[in-house]
Design brief:
With 137 residues, the protein is α+β, with helices and mostly antiparallel strands. It has helices spanning 2-19, 119-136; strands at residues 22-28, 33-34, 42-46, 49-55, 58-60, 71-74, 78-81, 90-96, 99-108. Residues 1-22 form the signal peptide.
């Protein structure tokens, strides 16, 4: 019984450590997202490609053309991405002073609130439901 308890505690500790540096982030098309870690020395990667680097007081943020003009860095808040696009969804990894943080970013819909492509089918479906309700009542 003691052995089972020890194994369970070790498993819980291992899971806690492995999950401690992973976070889900959400944003909307056209919006802005802050990567919640003020990087003092290290890199920010998107799907394995370095997109930002901070070292020895030098900041490089135009390393990937997909983020040119949209990736920003501030010494107190860290990296942020503006004018979000659906393609920005994915995994971001930050290596900061020897620690690694993973962020899973999900971008939703469009900022104007307009119906997504194919939205007319939803209205058409509602119309048929109303007709069926009227028919059976």
């Amino acid at each position: 019984m003691l052995l089972i308890s020890i194994v369970c505690l070790l498993w819980i500790a291992a899971v806690s450590v492995s999950c401690s540096h992973s976070e889900e982030l959400t944003g909307i098309v056209g919006g802005r997202i802050n990567i919640p870690n003020s990087l003092t020395k290290g890199t920010l990667m998107y799907k394995g490609t370095v997109i930002g680097d901070v070292s020895n007081g030098n900041i490089r943020i135009d390393l990937d053309e997909r983020f040119t003009g949209r990736l920003q860095w501030d010494s107190s808040t860290g990296f942020s991405i503006t004018d979000l696009k659906l393609e920005d969804s994915g995994e971001y990894t930050m290596q900061n002073n020897g620690e690694e943080f993973t962020y899973h970013l999900k971008i939703h819909g469009n900022r104007t609130g307009a119906a997504p492509a194919g939205g007319h089918f939803s209205a058409l479906s509602c119309f048929f439901v109303l007709i069926l309700v009227q028919f059976f009542l």
